[in-house]
Amino acid sequence: TSMIQLQREVADVFKETFGDDALSLMAISGDLTTNGTAAEGECIQDIAEIAGETPIAAVTGNHESDVSVDQMKDAGMTVLDGSAELGGLQVLGEGDPARSELFGATTLRGDRTQNDVGEDLYQQASDARADVVLVHEAYAAEAFVDVTDTVEFLDQRGSNTTPYDDGIRDLPAGALFYGHWHRDIEPRVVWNSDGSWTLVMELGTSGGAIDT
To answer: I need a labelling partner for 146 at 20 to 30 A (CA). Which of 6, 49, 76, 100 fits?
Structure first.
């Protein structure tokens, strides 16, 4: 709840500085809640109110339940399972194929894997370039980028402003966001052969793991 208050203040400062229409999209990479309790439902409503008229694109994390998904949709969030046009942007995403039960095990929800999610989204974006791609876990992001370790991939970042041959395949997206790991790590720009670029960013925690 304290982080929701901070997010609200940041959004207010941004709008005051750049205008009420400065925000085009709120992107959420999952794990807003755990089991869809009434208290968590109120938090989802509070987060949605931060966006105001700004559309919200979200994917589910490994902690969201079916009840959580209903709460997100009731709050006006677009829960992605494919593509959508929001705020003038083409957004593509899919939720975490795994589900972690409260105090229980993590198992796949069906027969899809993290690798399946990343590869399928890459193919969909290749057919129609996306402005934003959202997944929950780094393992799905790894499949999209075609690397074996996102930590190593991000740590080997080069220039964010000057194009160079980074050895990464062309990514058909303006930005790729993922979360899950609750860390503070710098993003990386991938430079594509056609002159375009892709921001790859691990979204940090909203207060669930980092005490400071």
So the answer is: 100
- The pair phi, psi for residue 64, each rounded to 5°, is -70, 140
> Among 24, 106, 28, 12, which residue's Cα sits nearest to residue 72?
28
pLDDT digits 0-9 by tens, 146-166: 999 888 898 888 899 999 999
- Tokens representing 43 are 């938090």
pLDDT tens by residue, 77-122:
999 999 999 999 999 999 999 988 877 788 888 899 999 999 999 9
Q: Dihedral through CA 69, CA 63, CA 93, CA 184, nearest 10?
A: 130
Tokens describing residue 155: 């740590």
Going by DSSP bridges, is the β-strand pair 197-202/130-134 parallel, antiparallel, or unpaired? unpaired
Q: Which residues contact 37 (CB under 8 A, 6 or more apart)?
A: none
Q: Across the chain, which distance is largest between two alpha carbons, in Å?
A: 50
Distance CA 100, CA 34 (A): 9
